[in-house]
Amino acid sequence: MVRNMKKHLLMVIFSTFILFFTAEIFGCAEKVSLYATWSDNNGNTIMMNAQKRYTANLYDATTNAFVESKGSFVYYLNTITFTDSNKESSYAEWDIQGNTLYLIFTEDDGDKSTLALYRTGEAVNVGEE
C-alpha cells in the first residue's frame, strides 16, 4: 500500500511538472508582435515590418513640428535602434504591455522622453530606401 502511495505521489509530481513545463514553452498569453502600426492620440505614428523597416511621424518639441523618418531598425532584448536614411541612429528601451508599446528615448544630455503608442494596425510594407 505504501508502494502504491509513493507511485501515485510520483505520478502527481511528474504530471504537475509536465503541465508547468508545457505552459512555459508554449506560453499562456498571446505575444504581441513589434511588427505593426503604432499610434497615439497626439498624432505620433510608427510603422514597423518583419523586414526590419520602419516609417515614423513623430512630434519634435524643439521644432514644434512633426518629423517624418524612414529607415531600418534592430532590437535586442529591451533595446531598439532606429537608423534613418541619413545613417543617424536613435536608441530606445521598449516594452509591450497588452496592445501598448512603450518607448523610452534617452537624449545625449541624459534627458528621457517617453512614448506610449497603441497598436492600431497590422504590419505594413514600408518600402526600401
Quick structural overview:
With 129 residues, the chain is α+β, with helices and mostly antiparallel strands. It has one helix at 2-26; strands at residues 36-39, 45-48, 53-60, 65-76, 79-84, 89-97, 100-106, 112-122.
Note down, in words, how this protein is organized.
The chain is α+β, with helices and mostly antiparallel strands and 129 residues long. The chain has 1 helix and 8 strands. The protein has one helix spanning 2-26, and strands at 36-39, 45-48, 53-60, 65-76, 79-84, 89-97, 100-106, 112-122. Strands 1-2-3-4-5-6-7-8 form an 8-stranded antiparallel barrel. The termini are far apart. The mean pLDDT is 81.
Q: Helical amount among residues, as a percent range?
A: 10-25%
What oligomeric assembly is this protein in?
single chain
Major β-sheet, in short? 8 strands, antiparallel, barrel
The poorly predicted ranges are none
Could you give the order of strands across the largest sheet?
1-2-3-4-5-6-7-8
Q: What structural category arises from helix and sheet content? A: alpha+beta
* Cα-atom radius of gyration: 22 Å
SS elements, strand count? 8
Order of helices and strands: HEEEEEEEE
From the N-terminal CA to the C-terminal CA, the straight-line distance is 74 Å
Mean pLDDT: 81
Give the overall form: elongated
Task: Give the percentage of residues in beta strands.
Answer: over 45%
The number of helices is: 1
